[in-house]
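Backbone description:
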Amino acid sequence: MTTEQINPANSSFCHGCLFRVCRLCKTLYTICLVLGILAVGACHDSSAEAPEESPVPETSQAAAAPEVSQATPSEPTVVAEPQESQAARTSLFDGKTLGNWRITDFGGQGKVYVKDGSIYLEMGNDMTGITWDAPLPFKTDYEITLEAMRVDGSDFFCGLTFPVGESFCSLVLGGWGGTLCGLSNIDYYDAANNETTRIVSFENNKWYHVRLHVQPNRITAWLAEEGDQPLVDMDITDRKIDTRAEMDPCQPMGVATWQTSGAVRNIHMRELTEEQKNRVTSDY
């Protein structure tokens, strides 16, 4: 039998290789162990940071939510009315009954009745009207506002008679053929023959907004449909103020038509404010 002898040099080589392999394995094992520890630490850190990060969006959403749910359109700004519009107004017609108005006895007057919140004055022969049959709150430094409409006919549909201190005057709208406006009377001359004469084209069945200011030395009237400039503006200092004889039955205050059917509504009276009392025409 042949016996193989082991070379001592080869044996040393094998032991050296085995030693190196063992060292390499230990090194790899150490590296893997360190990597494992680092991976576990990273997972632990990420899991620990998650609760701190997750509330952030939840908190922002929670904060934003009330803003969305509570957001509402801005309410309109309430603008204070000017002083002159805050003066107390006295209504002279409730829109339901004639109240303190009585039918003016012109002789030949048409029917007078309340309908749809308005007082209708049917065409008369020649005049139809209403007269205030109660004490008036003011004789000067006051304002009258009303709406007037020509329903049928071609002459004045609003002859408004009003007090001027202890005298009386009339504002005529649409007279003398349907277009003439002015004050009757100034120094005994009527609206067709004094400096207040104005020509306005009126439409039937259209409401016109009338505003009248009476002061001790001035009478001013506006038609809203004619713009901001006064329709009539008369300095009455040292002037004779009165009414035509036909309009006398309307004193102390009244509204009349001439061979025309008309209507009036929203009749109000109030005292002028101190600012208005001190104004001159150029201030309007």
About this structure: The two ends are 146 Å apart (CA to CA). Residues 8-53 form the longest helix (46 residues). The CA atoms of residues 145 and 211 lie 5 Å apart. The chain has two domains: 8-68, 88-283.
